[in-house]
Amino acid sequence: MSTTTENSATSLLRFATAGSVDDGKSTLVGRLLHDSKSVLADQLEAVERASLSRGQEAPDLALLTDGLRAEREQGITIDVAYRYFATPRRRFILADTPGHVQYTRNMVTGASTAELAVVLVDARNGVVEQTRRHAAVAALLRVPHVVLAVNKMDLVEYAEPVFAAIAEEFTAYAASLGVRDVVAVPISALAGDNVVEPSAHMDWYGGPTLLEHLETVPVGTDPSDRPARFPVQYVIRPQSDEHPDYRGYAGQLASGVLRVGDPVTVLPSGHTTTVAGIDALGRETDLAWAPQSVTVRLTDDIDISRGDLIAAGPVPAPTKDIEATVSHLSERPLRAGDKVLLKHTTRTVRALVKEISYRIDIDSLEQRSGAEGLDVNDIGHVVLRTAEPLALDGYSENRRTGSFLLIDPADGTTLTAGMAGEAFDTVRTDAPGVPEEEDWV
Question: 3-class SS at 253?
Fold first, then answer.
């Protein structure tokens, strides 16, 4: 059963743009919105007025996505700008992410749910440090498709050798990270070449325009390819005259397909039972697939509460010891010995940072062992001990149930985004840990 791979107006592609500062990300997104006729008249008029006030004769399409006042004043992207648009062939949710090194965490946020990443490169500068950083983040987050958009081709006289050299270097680097699907497109976001319409200046290029590729790239996966994972959000027990014995478990399928009659395991308890019924939109149904929100009924009365996981197929072994790759998002450093809250799907438990094994140098992919901690934007490997067992899949196998957040227990702020397992195919470097604290875990 395939529900997401057809290229139709009903399919949805989530994608993120990234690249070094001034490579033209916001201009590209603005051009994409403008030329695909996805900009309302009042929005375009507002951009035209803002452009005139800054002394620009032509509309600055970057202003369609640079929404913060600070961004417009500085001409840069700081926050992640989300935009929705649609063409007759597909619907899109895009995240325009910042290029500055200090905003790498924003790119992690924008690409965490993306199925495709557009990495921009200035044709004059080629692949630079931040280009490699963004490619590494896309690989770390297991974004399945990457587009290399070689921008500002008009400033290098639309020269094919310039494009070919950049595409070869980037593709080789992406392959070393495990990224196999890379499509390179030569563009000029400012002039509109190969963004929505084919370029008359680059007849040597026979590939699709950027929009054509976005409209035709396969999206999603067949839900039946993944084991079913159903995090319980809420237990429904009306105990009314009409439904005196009704007991249902509401939530959103994170992956896979559930059918009436399927044997399932409730984690972390390990109890086994069978799916007795599925309710969707107030009606009974025989099956449900990710990412539908449904209510599941089971044949046995089992003690199940919010945070439990109903799983079918091969199930992960619940554990209190978690090794993970993490991206630190907070200005507050993460140190070995820190007491945190760990949120995994709908379950939140106390946890201890036992060890920070190493920090990953994103530029070289080398592991810096003996790290005292992780600062904002750092990516590293940690060992955690939780107060209660959790059932995590490997992130490489399931992005939904293999990810988690570390939260400051004092004020509830998000500290770190975690991905269960190793980041890349690298050799682990051990570092000293800290003693366990039984009063916490």
Answer: coil
Degrees to nearest 5, angle at CA 92 with 26 and 70: 30
Chain center to CA of 394: 15
Residues shown for the chain: 441
Residue 265: which residues within 8 A CB-CB, separation 6 or more?
Answer: 271, 272, 310, 311, 312, 315
Look at residues 148, 357, 390 and name the one whose alpha carbon lies nearest to residue 267: 390
Relative to beta strand 283-285, strand 271-280 is antiparallel
Q: Residue 221 corresponds to which tokens in the numbers above?
A: 């996966």
> Using one digit for the tens of pLDDT, what is the confidence trace for 385-425?
999 999 999 998 899 999 999 999 999 999 999 999 876 64
The 10s digit of each residue's pLDDT in 13-66 is: 999 988 887 788 878 888 888 888 876 555 666 665 665 666 666 666 666 665
DSSP letters, 358-408, are EEEETTTTEEEES--EE-TT-EEEEEEEEEEEE----TTT-TTTTEEEEE-
Q: Which residues 6+ apart lie within 8 Å of 141 measured at CB?
A: 108, 111, 112, 114, 399, 419
Structure-block tokens of residue 233: 């959000």
Q: How far apart are CA 310 and CA 201, in angstroms?
A: 56
d(C-alpha 28, C-alpha 119), whole Å: 11
Q: CA-based Rg of the chain, rounded to a whole angstrom?
A: 24
For residues 31 and 105, the model is more confident at: 31
Q: Which residues pair with 232 in a beta bridge?
A: 251
* Close Cβ partners of 277 (under 8 Å, ≥ 6 residues apart): 260, 284, 296, 297
pLDDT given at position 402: 94
Q: Which helix (H) or strand (E) holds 234?
A: strand 229-236
Q: Three-state DSSP class for 302?
A: coil
The C-alpha atoms of residue 175 and residue 186 are separated, in whole angstroms, by 20
Closest CA to 47 of 35, 37, 60: 60
Q: Which residues, 6+ apart, have CB-to-CB distance to 210 below 8 Å?
A: 28, 32, 118, 147, 149, 185, 187, 194, 195, 196
Confidence of residue 376 (pLDDT cuts 50, 70, 90): confident
